[in-house]
Amino acid sequence: MQGPRYTTLILQLAFFLFFFVSVIYAQSLPPAKSDGFVYGNHRVDWDAILIEAFLDPVCPDSRDAWPPLKQALAHYGDRVRLIVHLLPLPYHDNAFVASRAIHIVNDLSSPATFKLLEWFFKYQEKFYNAQTRSLTRTEVVNEIVKAASQVVGSSFYSSLVSGFNDRKTDLKTRVSFKYSASRGVYGTPTFFINGFQLPDSGSALDFNGWKNFIDPLIGQKSAKNEENLHFFL
């Protein structure tokens, strides 16, 4: 008489375990696309020196680090390439919303991605904790949508609104945060060159600082190329 009852319990347990394992497996899957935004629209030289920047759109130090980094990119040209990862710091109340807006804009019009990032750097004080303390999250989102529509074009306004209602953009922003954590990054700005983290995380690096790191690497590449040339002569 107990047989059917125990069979039902076993089947329920088996279903629960299957569901639990499926959820864990799904959460452990890597994203379909690698995290980060590639700066510039020139042809990528995969032999170029790779700079990775972990930035928060409403972080003052990230803002201060951006101009000298752009100066270094202009100075070295195609000898370097940059990927920007967004790390919305939890103690910046509006960092996640700002980062999500950048993900949305990147999906709508990728050339405008860095325009919006620079807009946040220019006007980020509007979104500091103290300045938005009396605003609701919805009011903050509305302000950001208005600003983003000015950057990418007013025709994208409804798409921007829809983007904030799309769970996919929320997940992309979370992936950026988790990716930063997986790399051991907990402050902004943080920089990596060819996969190795630079010292003084959380502090802006000036143009001379970039030259101090990159010039020796450029010299090593030049010496290696000359060595290879002599080998074949």
Automatic annotation (TrEMBL):
Coiled coil: none annotated. This is Thioredoxin-like fold containing protein. PANTHER family: ACR183CP, OS09G0542200 PROTEIN. Keywords: Signal. Residues 51-215 form the Thioredoxin-like fold domain. InterPro entries: Thioredoxin-like_fold (IPR012336), Thioredoxin-like_sf (IPR036249). It comes from the Eukaryota.
